[in-house]
Amino acid sequence: MTDFTATRARFDLPDGIVYLDGNSLGPLPRDAAHRIARTVTDEWGGQLITAWNRAGWMDQPARLGDRIARLVGAAPGTVVVGDTLSLKVTQCLAAALQLRPDRRVVLSDSGNFPSDLYMAQGLLAALGQGHELRVVAPEDVEAAIGPEVAALMLTEVDYRTGRKHDMAALTAKAHDVGALAIWDLAHSAGALPVDLTGTGADFAAGCTYKFLNGGPGAPAFVYVAPDHQHVAPLLSGWLGHEAPFAFDPDYRPGPGISRMRVGTPPVLQMAALEAALDIFDTVDMQALRARSQHLGDRLIAAVEARCPNVTLASPRDPEARGSQISFRHPEGYAVMQALIARGVVGDFRAPDILRFGITPLYIGEAEIDRAAETLADILDTAAWDRPEYKHRAAVT
């Protein structure tokens, strides 16, 4: 069993705030500031450059990768941390295309995170080999998987609605036609059980600043199934070299997952991530999932009972969604700003979505009830209809 009262105590949350935006940026783990300070003063300050060896900085991406592997159903030695999610998605897609050189279609859906689509567009254009990025509606993906597809590239949980793809079924369908499956776990890792090995996923990538609570700018992670780790990476960076300090002028890929490393690891960010992952060492992912589904159902019921002017955008079936609940309202941006002003922090996604992350590590029934009550009052009184709530900030 997981003690969610204990996990809540391990986060430094501002007083009076109901934080329902952990699906965009997780809150500060209490131990993170101390861990970063120790890295700065004792390691960087006290050990200087020798900390790459003495403090284990150089090996940290692999150690963190193995800790994340447990949360996403991957074997040790198949996950490594570093760089950004966009770069890792690009590496995965490039590797998949190498493995399917006679196919020209990359299949994705309109619910995918736009950055994934942007990176695919750029990569395919740069290759100049006539590849097509084919984008269909989420519900049409399975039917669109055909023998011309080289790679299926999907985000498991839709960032707007929370709709959850069936990873096992879609990966199996891809394999049936000889295609490979790439999964973006940005809204899955740390939010729900993932089984990359069991589903036969070929490649996956995810970020660590959302449900994993690694902090703003925390590095991404990448997974490569053991059978594919022989592929030479598109981004042949120094730290993916077999022997970085041989300073060989020619690239020789490192063994296994290490070849997916590119640039110098962000040591201070990884220190924060270490502290965040310590919390997950106490968490049973099945218990977390069950609690998330319960809280999500509670929010839906409370909002629908009191807010007739909003429409549920997320699947009603808890098995068909991730760990977020989204509603539609024509003035969604202003409504969310009014909520934030009253201490209920979610976020807005264009064109009209109010998005609430459900994170049982620090959110319980009381917070869910307060969020629903505050939303109802704002809508009943039209409190959102003020100029300051309609001014669009850079980050929504």
TrEMBL record:
The modification N6-(pyridoxal phosphate)lysine is found at K210. Belongs to the kynureninase family. Catalyzes the cleavage of L-kynurenine (L-Kyn) and L-3-hydroxykynurenine (L-3OHKyn) into anthranilic acid (AA) and 3-hydroxyanthranilic acid (3-OHAA), respectively. It comes from Psychromarinibacter halotolerans. Its EC number is 3.7.1.3. Pfam families: KYNU_C. It catalyses: 3-hydroxy-L-kynurenine + H2O = 3-hydroxyanthranilate + L-alanine + H(+); L-kynurenine + H2O = anthranilate + L-alanine + H(+). PANTHER family: KYNURENINASE. Its cofactor is pyridoxal 5'-phosphate. Pyridoxal 5'-phosphate binds at L85, S86, F113, P114, S115, D116, T155, D184, H187, Y209, W238, T264. InterPro entries: Kynureninase, PyrdxlP-dep_Trfase, PyrdxlP-dep_Trfase_major, PyrdxlP-dep_Trfase_small. The keyword Acyltransferase does not apply. Pathway: Amino-acid degradation; L-kynurenine degradation; L-alanine and anthranilate from L-kynurenine: step 1/1; Cofactor biosynthesis; NAD(+) biosynthesis; quinolinate from L-kynurenine: step 2/3. The gene is kynU. Homodimer. Keywords: Hydrolase, Pyridine nucleotide biosynthesis, Pyridoxal phosphate. GO terms for molecular function: kynureninase activity. This is Kynureninase. It is an enzyme of class 3 (hydrolase).
